[in-house]
Design a protein that fits this description.
Belongs to the NnrD/CARKD family. In the C-terminal section; belongs to the NnrD/CARKD family. It contains 20 helices and 18 strands. It is α/β, with parallel strands linked by helices. About 55% of the residues are buried. An 11-stranded mixed sheet has the order 1-9-18-17-16-15-14-13-10-11-12, sandwiched between helices. The protein has a 7-stranded parallel sheet with strand order 4-3-2-5-6-7-8, sandwiched between helices.
């Protein structure tokens, strides 16, 4: 599990640790990890040309001490001081003693650099890069050098994942002690490159509950329901799906595909696309409706391709977990959802989330972490916000926001969300909580897309068909 903490939590942990260590020891740990990571990326340190972009404060100090270590190993290291009067004094002195030099012309050294350490701003930076840093950051990005961010790319918001001004795109980020939410959540995540965590001894001083977390294979394997010897279709979970219309029969087929390939014991389909569903999946139990007369289910999925047809209201009245997606989200009554006693999982994309919140799509995409938390609180439901980084949040901040690490742009294809709905619904029916069902489904969905990404073009049907490969990946 990758876990991330807010800046104030990380700083409090650092202060506890600093009180137990000799002066400057924590910064030296960070610098040593940064220098080792940089050396590994360079491959050959001796004779390499390294540029350190140095802002004020401890982030610049980390970069200077790392630069000193690389200089002692034979690299030619130049420092660009963006705030000369406020550069970390001990770090700068160590850098100069090791043979580093202060660049007179930043653009000359950047043009020839093999690697650039971005130590302009640290975790306390807000509002993007300062105007005087922008030309230097652009020159670094425009060079042929590998850009390595120190703790996080300069200009991004560490806590929220927002990018409120210009920021420096990194090829890699070396972060210290703990992940920060902005390293996991878009749009900031798009600036990080590959992220490497350096252990500096913070873990015993951090709280047990983080702000965000990202599942890994082992976590998903523990959550996935596996049939036992006494299992039957009811024990494995029966999911009901209310989806599709005369205009969008394929949505029903794809949602059923996601549920069947997601491990459901049985799928009951209610809607006008029964013939299409049976033609593709003859094991499906179909009904003309209404949902209450379709038979026993352990969870409902409602909304994909539903159009203007009714269905969501009756399903929401059922005393079983309900997933609401797509057309089911239109006009959704927050009081009805809040009044439910069984779990509810809402799965909007950014446009649907914007309509539910009464804001623009751009606002949702710019502040994804805030948006998913706000939606969960407003509706009293678990919310899976689809997008470049899919997020899953419970209301009231009861648990860390889950960040899906397997997303891929290949999932931006028609019907992909319908497959995800069916998959998550099957996991709800199997007994997973709404939070676990949403986050495990997003994880498997992304893995499945990666299996099929070499196909041209990638289709939602291919993603559904490849879900068993994703299960095998997790258990490998």
């Amino acid at each position: 599990m990758r876990i991330a903490y807010r800046v104030e939590t990380v700083r409090a942990a650092e202060q506890e640790l600093i009180a137990r260590l000799p002066g400057g020891a924590l910064m030296q740990r960070a610098a040593a990890g940064l220098a080792a990571a940089a050396a590994g990326m360079l491959g050959r340190v001796y004779g390499a040309r390294v540029v350190v972009l140095v802002g004020s404060g401890d982030n610049g100090g980390d970069a200077l001490y790392a630069g000193a270590r690389l200089a002692r190993r034979g690299a030619g290291v130049s420092a660009v001081l963006l705030a000369p009067d406020r550069a970390h004094p001990e770090g700068l002195a160590a850098f100069l003693r090791a043979g580093g030099r202060v660049a007179e012309d930043p653009y000359d050294v950047l043009a020839a650099a093999d690697l650039v350490l971005d130590g302009i701003t640290g975790i306390g930076g807000h509002g993007g890069l300062r105007p005087d840093a922008v030309p230097v950051a652009r020159a670094a990005r425009g060079s042929n050098a590998l850009v390595v961010a120190v703790d996080l790319p300069s200009g991004i918001e560490a806590d929220s994942g927002e990018v409120l001004g210009e920021a420096l795109h990194a090829d890699a980020t070396v972060t210290f002690g703990a992940y920060k939410p902005g390293l996991l959540v878009d749009p900031a995540h798009a600036y990080t490159g590959a992220v490497r965590l350096v252990d500096i001894g913070l873990e015993p001083h951090l709280p047990s509950v983080p702000d965000c977390e990202a599942l890994q294979h082992a976590d998903v394997a523990q959550l996935l329901p596996v049939p036992a010897g006494e299992s039957d279709k009811y024990r494995r979970g029966v999911v009901g799906i209310v989806a599709g219309s005369a205009r969008y029969p394929g949505a029903a087929v794809l949602a059923v595909a996601g549920a069947l390939h997601g491990g459901a014991g049985a799928v009951r389909y209610v809607g006008p696309a029964a013939d299409d569903v049976i033609a593709r999946f003859p094991e499906t139990l179909v009904s003309a409706g209404p949902p209450a007369k379709a038979g026993r289910v352990q969870a409902w999925v409602v909304g994909p391709g539903l159009g203007d047809a009714p269905g969501a209201e009756e399903v929401l009245a059922a005393d079983v977990p309900v997933l609401v997606d797509a057309d089911g989200l239109r006009g959704l009554d927050a009081e009805v959802v809040r009044g439910r006693t069984a779990p509810t999982l809402l799965t909007p994309h950014a446009g649907e989330a914007a309509a539910l919140l009464g804001v623009s799509r751009a606002e949702v995409e710019a502040a994804r972490l805030h948006s998913v938390r706000e939606l969960a609180d407003r509706y009293g439901a678990t919310v899976l916000l689809k997008g470049s980084t899919t997020l899953v949040a419970d209301p009231g901040g009861r648990a860390p926001v889950r960040v899906n690490p397997t997303g891929t742009p290949w999932l931006a294809t028609a019907g992909s969300g319908d497959v995800l709905s069916g998959l998550a619904g099957s996991l709800l029916a199997a007994g997973l909580t709404a939070r676990d069902a949403g986050s495990v489904a997003a994880y498997l969905h992304g893995l499945s897309a990666r299996h099929t990404a070499n196909e041209a073009p990638l289709t939602a049907s291919a993603v559904a068909s490849s879900l068993p490969n994703a299960w095998r990946d997790v258990y490998a």
